[in-house]
From TrEMBL:
This is Ribosomal protein L11 methyltransferase. It is an enzyme of class 2 (transferase). Methylates ribosomal protein L11. It is found in: Cytoplasm. Belongs to the methyltransferase superfamily. PrmA family. Keywords: Cytoplasm, Methyltransferase, Ribonucleoprotein, Ribosomal protein, S-adenosyl-L-methionine, Transferase. InterPro entries: Ribosomal_L11_MeTrfase_PrmA, Ribosomal_PrmA_MeTrfase, SAM-dependent_MTases_sf. The gene is prmA. It comes from the Bacteria.
């Protein structure tokens, strides 16, 4: 099906009123493009580390919405123009120009799969999408089948690679691993394939947990070996109890700097004496902030690894209890 896309040109100050007017006309699913920076609270809720540069002096704004092919676009435009005319008596609504274009009905959620192909992460770890064939498997390869769905983690991003390389270096068979912010479950599954006795993954997004459970099944790993829980391990006391204290040889957290900083003050209680905290997802401009927090919370930094603009910190928890 083809859709008609209408884009209305207005100004920042009028966006809210114009949006309300459009919704009063029964138009939903609005897309707004402007140069208004998001708030600090919004940034944290969206887990964004790097914000785009905006021309805040530019007060233009664009509101887009879609009509089905059979809808009367001329009638809708007439109603919108009337609404703008009324609003313009009270506020500057800008030019009010409306651009019309057509777009195909596209499966946006699954289109990215076209570009996700099997790839070799290093000498013997291969990431294979569940819908692709693998033609170059070598003896000794560890093949991880993956469908990330809407969860983060295909293994191709530098932050995930840094974690996997750290797991290969520090994980020995029989260890227990906690994966905080497990996303698609890729790190939990790899930890298990590298010999971990038991792995527990946690994620605040229940949909990510559903995805990770599906990926566990695809890789034929039992729940006894790899389990997943939904919740915030920083603030949820019940989840902390369920995860267990002084239990894990390694905690791996591929999240963001602004989450790793408070996490470093809580995660020590879950580690065994001398356990390792592997953190990644740290943009290089925040490396020193994370290092300061990790050290302040009693960890001994063993290594700082970098790949592109991203940083991974491997730290040892020297205390038996108490963080």
């Amino acid at each position: 099906m083809k859709w008609v896309k209408l884009t209305l040109k207005t100004v920042t100050e009028a966006v809210e009123l114009v949006s309300d007017m459009l919704m009063d006309l029964g138009i939903e699913g609005l897309e707004i493009k402007d140069n208004v920076p998001i708030t600090e609270r919004e940034r944290k809720e969206l887990f964004i580390d790097i914000l785009p540069e905006l021309d805040t002096d530019n007060k233009e704004a664009f509101i887009s919405f879609y009509l089905e092919e059979g809808d009367n676009a001329k009638e809708v435009i007439r109603s919108v123009k009337e609404g703008l005319s009324e609003l313009s008596q009270f506020v500057d609504t800008g030019s009010g120009e409306i651009e019309i274009s057509e777009t195909e009905d596209t499966d946006w959620i699954n289109n990215w799969k076209t570009y996700f192909k099997p790839f070799r992460l290093d000498d013997n770890i291969v990431i294979k999408p569940t819908w692709e064939e693998l033609n170059d498997k070598k003896d000794g390869d560890i093949v991880i089948e993956l469908d990330p769905g809407t969860a983060f983690g295909t293994g191709s991003h530098e932050t995930t690679k840094l974690c996997i390389l750290a797991l290969k270096k520090y994980l020995t068979p029989g260890m227990e691993v906690l994966d905080v912010g497990s996303g698609s479950g890729i790190l939990s599954i790899i930890a298990s394939r590298l010999g971990a006795k038991k792995v527990l993954g946690t994620d605040i997004d229940p949909h990510a947990v559903e995805t990770s459970i599906e990926n566990r099944a695809v890789n034929k790993i039992s729940e006894e070996k790899v389990a997943f829980l939904s919740g915030d391990i920083i603030s949820d006391d019940n989840l902390k109890e369920t995860v267990g204290f002084e239990k894990y040889d390694i905690v791996v957290a591929n999240i963001l700097a602004d989450i790793i900083i408070p996490l470093s003050g809580k995660i020590g209680m879950h580690l065994k004496y001398g356990g390792l905290f592997i953190s990644s997802g740290i943009i290089n401009m925040k490396k020193e902030q994370v290092l300061t927090a990790v050290k302040a919370n009693g960890f001994e930094v063993l290594a700082v690894e970098e790949m592109g603009d991203w940083v991974s910190i491997i730290a040892k928890h020297p205390f038996a209890e108490g963080l």
